[in-house]
Structures are given as structure tokens and as C-alpha cells.
Write a structure and sequence with these properties.
Layout: E1 9-13, E2 16-21, H1 24-43, E3 49-53, H2 60-68, E4 77-81, E5 83-85, H3 96-108, E6 112-114, H4 122-134, E7 140-143, E8 167-171, H5 174-182, E9 195-199, H6 201-205, E10 209-214, H7 220-228, E11 246-251, H8 252-255
Parallel strand pairs: 2-11, 3-4, 3-7, 4-6, 7-10, 10-11
Antiparallel strand pairs: 1-2, 5-9, 8-9
Helix pairs in contact: 1-2, 2-3
């Protein structure tokens, strides 16, 4: 692997470790290296691990790094993803399961991949997927932060830090839907589904090690609120400051200082 980028600036806010890099590529490369190192360390200690992946353009550089690391034994990894649109055709290019297969799973072939089936009846799918997640602890979560501060699809109106569910159906707020247009995933907001299945905030925070990748100036306000605002569901990502092992990777654009 290539030489790793240097951290431009680091700080810790509450329990959240924050690493600032010069640019998006440096950010994603550093995060990928840290995730890869944690995977190998955990696999040296136990027979298999369980990981949750976000599917978003913000994750591209991290996923690319993992794809290139030939020393990861993917056969011993069980993979989940954290959310999925409701109502899209099975072959829709915007489906998050397709995103992860195209950028990672098709090439590395994890031992087991558990996908959210949004074509299933929502209550039954929440029961089925929730049971899979509860079978054993989650070791690693790779996530991002939305422009409205959401983690997964836990937008401010539906976020619950004490949610009793593992996965639930939610209505997406307009800021979240607009972000999907801003990211180039849809041509217009009318094309973005109004509902999705998402892992809840307690389900995400149940992961032992969290790696949160947030590049670009469109995320600057969300990062500022995450680091400096009150811990509140008005900006769901603020709860990351309470996780015992979460690292936030940002660049100059998203850090904004």
C-alpha cells in the first residue's frame, strides 16, 4: 500500500476522536487504513467479525482502500448495510445494496452478506433483519453523517437515542432527500423515495469500533454542529461524541476551520 497521509490536525471532543486531513483522498485513505488495521487485529483474535457498511459517495475512498488491501481475509467477515430505500425497483442503480456490491462486495466476496430486502413487507423485514443483527455483537461500523446531521436514515424528526427497535421504516425529511440530489444519486427531489428502512441509532452505536467518514464542504455545517452543538436529536450525529471508540475523519472542506 502507498504511504499514508499525515493528519493535518487532531482533537478529542467528549469521547469522539477527530482527525482532519488536507483533502478528501487523504481522509479516505487514512480511514481505510485504520479500518483495515482494525479488521486484521480483530481477525487475529477471533474466528470471524461482523461489520456494518454505509452506502454513499462519501465512502468511496474508504471502500477503495479496503478493496486494494489484499491482506484482509474477507471470507471471515459477515457484512450488513445500514439502510435501504423503500419502493425502488429491484434493479434500480440507486439501491444501496447495489452500491456496495459494485464498489466492494463483488470483488472481495465477504463470507456472508446480509442485505435489507425493501421489497419485503416492512414489518416482517424489520423483524427478519433485526434478528440477524442481534445474533452476535457488531465489531465495526463504517458510517457517514448527512447534511442534516443524520446517521443512516435517522433524520432529526425520527431520530431516537433510546430507540427500542433495531431497524425501522422512516419517512425521509426534505433536507435528506435533497442531499441525495446534491450527491448526484437522483436527478430531482421528486425522484427520491419518501421512505426507507434504516438501522436505528442504538443499533449503530452497538458497534464496538466506529469509523465515521465525512468529506467535503457540503457537510461543514453538519460537522460543526456535531462537534460543538448540544447532544440532541436535532442533530443526530452529536450522539457520536458519547461512543467510547468512534473516530471522525474530516477534510479541510468539511471541518471548515
Amino acid at each position: 500500500m502507498n504511504e499514508l497521509p499525515n493528519v493535518f490536525f487532531s482533537q478529542t471532543i467528549d469521547s469522539l476522536k477527530v482527525n482532519v486531513y488536507d483533502n478528501r483522498l487523504a481522509l479516505g485513505t487514512a480511514a481505510g487504513a485504520d479500518v483495515a488495521a482494525r479488521i486484521k487485529q480483530l481477525l487475529s483474535e477471533k474466528p470471524g467479525i461482523r461489520m456494518i457498511f454505509a452506502a454513499a459517495p462519501s465512502q468511496n475512498e474508504l471502500l477503495a482502500y479496503l478493496l486494494e488491501d489484499q491482506a484482509i481475509d474477507w471470507n471471515r467477515i459477515t457484512a450488513f448495510h445500514m439502510d435501504e430505500y423503500n419502493g425502488l425497483p429491484v434493479d434500480a442503480p440507486q439501491k444501496f445494496s447495489r452500491f456496495l456490491y459494485e464498489r466492494l462486495f463483488n470483488q472481495v466476496k465477504p463470507g456472508t452478506v446480509h442485505l435489507i430486502d425493501s421489497s419485503n413487507e416492512s414489518e416482517e423485514e424489520c423483524r427478519r433483519y433485526g434478528e440477524l443483527l442481534r445474533q452476535a455483537p457488531i465489531d465495526i461500523v463504517c458510517l457517514g453523517i448527512g447534511e442534516n446531521g443524520h446517521i443512516a436514515f435517522n433524520d432529526p424528526p425520527v431520530a431516537d437515542f433510546n430507540d427500542p427497535q433495531v431497524i425501522k421504516m422512516v419517512e425521509l425529511d426534505n433536507a435528506c432527500r435533497q442531499q441525495q440530489v446534491n450527491d448526484g444519486c437522483f436527478a430531482a427531489i421528486k425522484d427520491v423515495p419518501t421512505h426507507a428502512l434504516t438501522l436505528t441509532i442504538p443499533a449503530l452505536l452497538s458497534g464496538t469500533h466506529l469509523f465515521c467518514v465525512v468529506p467535503g464542504p457540503t457537510k461543514q455545517k453538519a460537522v460543526e454542529r456535531t462537534l460543538n452543538g448540544p447532544i440532541s436529536t436535532e442533530c443526530p450525529s452529536t450522539i457520536l461524541r458519547k461512543h467510547p471508540d468512534c473516530t471522525l475523519y474530516v477534510d479541510r472542506g468539511s471541518y471548515g476551520k
